[in-house]
Design brief:
By secondary structure, the protein is an alpha/beta fold. The protein contains 25 helices and 22 strands. Keywords: Magnesium, Metal-binding, Thiamine pyrophosphate, Transferase.
């Protein structure tokens, strides 16, 4: 609770924030000025009175986390970072939405601007990832200081959010908010800016529910502050806001949702409470009018009230004092808990635990060449082996734990103790088994927040087909370049009986097309184990998708021997020939077995075929040119690649997965390709996929979905199957 005071200097600082926001958008020629203008007193109050932060050390572990979910209102935060002394300058505000080197991009980007906790812009994801921040804080506290009274641990901090109507209209916020209420996340406070304006006009066009009752139903504490007075006048009543925040801070068993009724762009003449101020520059006349209302000279742009700025900068001194107090508690904790301190040092440095390799080796020792095991099952075995030595590893599934094999043996559920069930008899607030329900999008956003807000390592699983629901969160993870781990099983048309709704035929291509996402598709249990080893050992790991089979696939003798070194390189020679091969067959995942079978058949025909297991194109592209040339020599132009994925004749049908991956068409295609290369045929052509039953005929054995990819170049790029005999 604060002893709230509000001085003339505070009022002047808020006025300056409004004018700077208007000037920045006007100079840029585009942006969203309305919300930063009307949010200025709210953001200023938070940064000056409530958020625990140290501008001298933006990465201080003891800080509270603030997420501006409506990233389009980025100036709301940039101005406060400038006021607080985070290193932003008035020139940074002048360069708002500038070139690639700007520190004030149109939407906040983590890693670019000091004080920004996550990249926001796609509405709903900031609020949803904030739930993950709160998850991560609680779980990390449980790892390091579980028995400390509430509010006394150096690992106690709060998560603050400002969001708007667009955020709560997006479905992902409903998914995540429901989970937050179920989890009783008392460390999370959301301020909802209810300005009733969207691009197309008044929000009553599309948004009419009682938002407070909705959040009450989720299990949140709710309150409302209105800047619109009963007589219709407008007053930015920061004292009422502070009183509501103080009251909310006394609530520790629920997340908090405080609605603040505002008028967008107030007090801009002609633009207040109007959609034209939402997503466009106000225009010179309106900006001049705003400055007159604020008592400023309309002819002066980017005016800095030095006295008010100095007053606002005093927050840095308060932050430094809070940091010193935290240091005392932190050092006392270290002395009292040397083992926990060692754990903290390791996970904070991103180092793997002792016994990591041995844990994976132990899992591999139980594998046997020739066994037919689904890679999803192997994945579960490896994750459990790693979890035994890596306490910071936790995760779960979107209600598919048994199918994805993402359940951790012996783990308690993460949640209130009253959430224990028959299936999960133990539940506590520090449990490591996550349950997301049927909420893939929230799962992706929450695990993003966990990664950003803690030093722990989460994972989340679903069927590969339903990664479509999670895709926007994956893209945001890629933009932020954080090592989220996606366990996506049931990866192809081999689902058979479930039919086309559950068969992910275009998904491999879609995620490979997404920059900074690493797609990993192991062939068998040996490659699966090594894929996890490589993922956790990689430096600067990007979001990574483990693409796993539902059906059993044979553990290959070749991978048993070569996967340890080969998988980490993305692609490697699995089966080779004496001398230069006549043809190279590339495959990933469940199709590798058929490539190996085809190579043996081709050998019987006198054709030398090399098989390359292309576990991850992205990892392969990271290798040097010499290695890529050794795997895919440019001199071998006859190349065929095969995956159960893109280039389909149509969506599949429902049928048993008897044997959807025939090796015979692969043999004939490789033979035809080699024959064509040595013929006088035209140099450029398409190699058609093997003729399979039409999906319309509903085949009894499989759906007829099969992909024949063009060859991979030495750089790992996909290109049309063309060839030059010269």
């Amino acid at each position: 609770m604060t002893d709230f005071t509000w001085s003339d200097l505070d009022e002047r600082a808020v006025k300056m924030a409004k004018a700077l926001s208007a000037d920045a958008v006007e100079k840029a020629g585009s942006g969203h000025p309305g919300s930063p203008i009307s949010l200025a007193p709210i953001a200023y109050t938070l940064y000056q009175r409530y958020i625990k932060h140290d501008p001298n050390d933006p990465k201080w572990e003891g800080r509270d986390r603030f997420i501006l979910s409506g990233g389009h209102a980025s100036l709301t935060q940039y101005v406060q970072l400038y006021f607080s002394g985070y290193g932003l300058t008035i020139d940074d505000l002048k360069y708002f939405r500038g070139g690639a080197d700007t520190r004030t991009p149109g939407h906040p980007e983590v890693g670019l601007t000091p004080g920004i906790e996550m990249t926001t812009g796609p509405l709903g994801q900031g609020l949803s990832s904030a739930v993950g921040f709160a998850y991560g804080q609680r779980f990390e506290r449980g790892l390091l200081d579980p028995n400390a009274p509430a509010g006394t641990s150096p690992f106690d901090h709060k998560v603050w959010v400002i969001c708007g109507e667009g955020d709560v209209e997006e479905g992902v916020s409903s998914e995540a908010s429901s989970l937050a209420g179920n989890q009783q996340l008392g460390n999370l406070t959301v301020i909802f800016d209810a300005n009733h304006i969207q691009i197309e006009g008044d929000t009553k066009l599309t948004f009419s529910e009682d938002i407070l009752k909705r959040y009450e139903a989720y299990g949140w504490y709710t309150d409302e502050v209105s800047f619109i007075q009963p007589d219709g006048t407008y007053k930015e009543d920061v004292a009422a806001l502070a009183a509501a925040l103080d009251k909310a801070e006394q609530v520790t068993d629920r997340p908090k949702f405080i609605k603040v009724d505002t008028l967008i762009a107030w007090p801009t003449p002609g633009k207040t409470n109007d959609e034209s101020s939402h997503g466009s520059a106000l225009g010179a006349e309106a900006v001049a009018g705003l400055k007159k209302e604020l008592g400023y000279d309309p002819s002066v742009d980017f005016f800095v009230d030095e006295e008010a700025l100095a007053h606002a900068r005093e927050v840095a001194d308060r932050g430094l004092a809070a940091h010193k107090e935290w240091d005392e508690r932190y050092n006392a904790w270290r002395q009292a808990n040397p083992d926990k301190a060692a754990l903290y040092d390791r996970i904070h440095a991103g180092k793997l635990p002792e016994g990591f390799d041995e844990a994976i080796d132990k899992a591999i020792a139980a594998f046997k060449a020739g066994d037919k095991v689904a890679t999803r099952k192997a994945s579960g075995q490896v994750l459990n082996a790693i979890a035994e030595v890596m306490p910071e590893l936790w995760g779960g599934s979107a209600d598919l734990g048994g199918s994805n094999n993402t359940n951790l043996k012996g783990a308690t559920s993460f949640g209130p103790s009253h959430d224990a069930t028959r299936t999960w008899p133990e539940s506590n607030e520090y449990g490591r088994q996550l349950h997301f329900g049927v909420r893939e999008f929230a799962m992706g956003a929450i695990t993003n927040g966990i990664l950003l807000g803690s030093d722990t390592r989460p994972f989340g699983g679903t069927f590969f087909q339903f990664s479509d629901y999670e895709r926007p969160a994956v893209r945001l993870a890629a933009l932020m370049q954080i090592p989220n781990l996606y366990v996506w099983s049931h990866d192809s048309v081999a689902l058979g009986e479930d039919g086309p709704t559950h068969q992910p035929i275009e998904h491999l291509a879609a995620f490979r097309a997404m920059p900074d996402v690493e797609v990993v598709r192991p062939a068998d249990e040996f490659e699966t184990a090594e894929a996890y080893r490589a993922f956790f050992e990689k430096k600067n790991t990007l979001p990574t998708a483990m693409i796993l089979t539902r059906q059993g696939v044979p553990a290959l003798a070749e991978t048993a021997d070569k996967a340890r070194e080969g998988v980490r390189k993305g692609g490697y020679v699995l089966v080779d020939t004496e001398g230069e091969p006549d043809v190279i067959i590339m495959a990933s995942g469940s199709e590798v077995q058929w490539a190996v079978t085809a190579a043996k058949t081709l050998a019987d025909k006198g054709i030398k075929a090399r098989v390359v297991s292309m576990v991850s194109m992205e990892w392969f592209e990271e290798q040097d040119a010499d290695y890529r040339e050794s795997v895919l020599p440019a001199s071998v132009k006859a190349r065929v690649s095969v995956e159960a994925g893109i280039a389909m004749l149509g969506t599949s049908t429902s049928a048993a997965a008897a044997s959807p991956y025939p090796s015979r068409p692969l043999v004939s295609k490789a033979t035809a390709h080699r024959t064509w290369l040595t013929s006088a045929s035209p140099r450029n052509t398409w190699l058609k996929p093997p003729k399979l039953p039409s999906p319309k005929r509903r085949p009894e054995t499989h759906g007829g979905c099969f992909s024949w990819h063009p060859p991979i170049t030495n750089g790992g790029d996909m290109e049309r199957i063309t060839a030059d005999r010269n």
